[in-house]
Design a protein that fits this description.
heterodimer; A: 394 residues; alpha/beta; Rossmann fold; 3 domains; 7-stranded parallel sheet; 5-stranded parallel sheet; B: 261 residues; 15 strands; 29% strand; globular
């Protein structure tokens, strides 16, 4: 196991050294030396070597059960009986993956009295596996882990996708661990390698500084989580038919040991960030908590939601539920206005796919301008009220 | 209470820069740090020990230099530490990492609570905690922002959700991941630093924890990285000029044209 340089084949040409994203390769005495500490065995050097001198070896290949597996599944997350938008987004992308694989697209809906399940068909699902039980409404994630694991074992889909929501990021890895298969977190790109019939999963890593494309070559199913708003949902085709398959809840499979006792809503959030078309976000440049009123006023003028970068949340100016970025929410609105936000990569990771980004900042060199569509360099305390006023008038 | 805290050494990513010529990460001068989210996990473990008695063991899978980080963990209150370091562990995905940590926790034995940070700064998946819970066959609670009480082998805690806070309880032993709201990590005290200095930190290889070679590192990883590249940051913003009022007017005009307002 590991990575090796074949000293006979290596010419010391040096083309591998700059290919290493981690800068771990040195040319010593005309041969490439790889510093294994820090090496992730990503293979970037191997791919650039013209002499096939670099080899990455796995001792044991895992057993394949993949040939019988078929179908692309989307876990249709719901909360209190309402299906989340991310389910429709995944169905839109899942439809394309299923077409490339010439297979069916299925939605899996676990819940109690879930409303408008047929909408999953309107958004592209050929089949909908529906499991209804009051246990799904108790706030414990254990029944979801148990029942989804069981369904996947029984029906052996090739691919299963879930939203990288807080719930998805908590329960889906447990399913993957039980199934002994790979899971790729927070994908921003999903594609089929049609030749190998493999799912190519692309995700940002190192705070969005590096993109990695990952495959799950032999274990099945191939599993990914995808952040909300990364893919666009298709317009629903009302009346499109999908087969709704009601599956019995398997009580024996349940091992619920966690109980929800109480829920306290975070009352400051008026417009849901991950569903908003317009978002106005404030950063450290606002100076103090009271100045967030400027952001709220502008958001009100636009009918949008209020967001924040991390520093105001850390300083307690606004609750965490408003935070956009790597450790907060990922948003993809039509319009994102960043006010007094410098644009650290962690923040950009959460918002740079917005259709139109407006940056307002007094520092012309702020990185936020690199992702912005329109930029205003100026004093936000002048610009923002003027903008709110103009918008009210227009 | 036997508490195990899982730590990871990560590069301080806020300092990550890309060499514009070579298009690689500039690693020189970048210090390895304790993953910030894990600092909250460690602090919470120490606080629970102070509240209920017991022992905190810090573990980490990583290269030999991660021993220094574990020494730091002892300086802020961990009683013992062990480093899982073996060339066979290299290239592990989250499944193989969780498997390896699980084996080490079983070796330590009788853990009542396993605490992880919610995610790491570098890999950023947040998957190792929940996968570890399954490897150990234990209940799991993510995003814990407060531990209210532990009584009669039941833990009651607050978990941060999308729209608010939930109070949940679960049976011990259990695995939890914590968010930064849970505490403010302490700085090392003199006594802790002295203890850390003389602490023995064992290094465990695959055979020491009874891990099967085909389940650790690259061999044990179901996922495989096939390509690594740098995201394109292509365009620069269209900037407006003039005083604030002129700029705002120009902007509003653009937004109208784009039918965004």
């Amino acid at each position: 196991m590991g990575i090796n340089v074949d000293k006979d084949k290596c010419t010391g040409c040096g083309s591998c050294a700059p290919a290493c994203p981690f800068g771990l390769i040195e040319i010593i005495d005309d041969k490439a030396h790889i510093n294994i500490e820090g090496c992730t065995l990503c293979g970037a050097c191997r791919d650039t070597c013209a002499f096939e001198a670099i080899r990455i070896e796995k001792e044991i290949e895992k057993a394949v059960y993949g040939d019988e597996s078929r179908g692309v599944w989307v876990f249709a997350e719901q909360a209190k009986g309402e299906i989340k938008a991310v389910a429709y987004e995944l169905l839109a992308r899942g439809r394309e993956l299923a077409t490339d694989l010439k297979t069916e697209l299925c939605a899996v809906c676990l819940g109690h009295n879930v409303k408008q399940v047929e909408k999953l068909a309107f958004h592209g699902a050929d089949k909908i596996y529906l499991v209804d039980d009051p246990l799904f409404a108790t706030g414990s994630e254990d029944p979801y882990v148990d029942q989804l694991t069981r369904l996947i074992k029984e029906r052996q889909p090739a691919i299963v996708l879930a939203g990288a929501t807080p719930f998805g990021r908590s329960f889906f890895p447990r399913v993957a661990a039980r199934l002994n298969t790979g899971l790729t977190a927070d994908c921003t790109g999903l594609e089929i390698d049609t030749e190998k019939k493999l799912l190519k999963q692309t995700r940002p890593t190192f705070g969005g500084n590096i993109m990695a494309t990952i495959i799950c070559p032999t274990a099945r199913p191939q599993m990914s989580t995808v952040r909300p708003r990364v893919f666009r949902q298709n317009a629903p085709v009302t009346g499109r038919q999908g087969e709704i398959i009601r599956v019995n809840f398997n009580k024996e499979a349940v091992t619920s040991r966690t109980r929800l006792l109480n829920f306290v809503a975070d009352l400051t959030e008026k417009v849901k960030l991950d569903e908003a078309d317009v978002i106005v976000a404030g950063g450290r440049g606002l100076g103090k908590a009271e100045n967030f009123q400027l952001i709220r006023d502008l958001a009100t003028a636009l009918g949008g939601a209020v967001a924040s970068s991390r520093p105001p949340v850390d300083d307690g100016w606004i609750p965490y539920s408003h935070q956009v970025g790597q450790t907060g929410k990922t948003v993809c609105p039509k319009l994102y206005i960043a006010v007094g936000i410098s644009g650290a990569v962690q923040h950009l990771a959460g918002m740079q796919t917005a259709d139109c980004i407006i940056a307002i900042n007094d520092d012309p060199n702020a990185p936020i301008f690199q992702v912005a569509t329109y930029g205003i360099v100026g004093d936000l305390f002048k610009v923002v009220p003027l903008l709110a006023e103009q918008l009210k008038n227009s | 209470m036997n508490i195990v805290v899982c730590l990871k050494q990560v590069p301080g990513t806020t300092e990550v820069k890309i060499d514009p010529v070579k298009n690689t990460l500039v690693r020189q001068g970048i210090k390895s740090i304790l993953n910030p989210f894990d600092a909250y996990a460690l602090e919470e473990g120490v606080r629970l020990k102070e509240r209920y008695g017991g022992k905190v063991t810090a573990i980490s899978m990583g290269p030999p230099q991660a021993a220094e980080m574990l020494r730091d963990a002892i300086s802020v209150g961990a009683d013992e530490a062990a480093l899982l370091s073996d060339i066979a562990f290299a290239g592990a995905d989250t499944w193989a990492t969780a498997y390896t940590l699980g084996k080490a926790i079983k070796k330590i034995g009788a853990a009542d609570l396993v605490i992880c940070g919610r995610q790491t700064l570098d890999g950023d998946t947040g998957q190792v905690g929940p996968e570890l819970a399954e490897m150990l066959g234990l209940p799991f609670v993510a995003y814990v922002s407060q531990i209210e009480e532990i009584k009669d082998k039941v833990i009651r805690l607050q978990r941060m959700g999308e729209d608010g806070y939930e109070t949940v309880e679960t049976a011990l032993p259990a695995v939890i991941t914590v968010v930064k709201e849970i505490n403010i990590p302490r700085l090392p005290a003199f006594r802790g630093m002295m203890k850390a200095k003389s602490a023995q930190i064992p290094v465990w290889k695959a055979e020491d924890i009874g891990a099967e070679k085909e389940k650790v590192g690259l061999n044990g990883s179901f996922t495989q990285v096939v390509k690594i590249f740098f995201p394109e940051r292509q365009h620069t913003a269209e900037m407006f000029s003039g005083d604030a009022e002129t700029q705002v007017k120009a902007l509003v005009q653009k937004l109208k044209e784009a039918k965004l307002i």
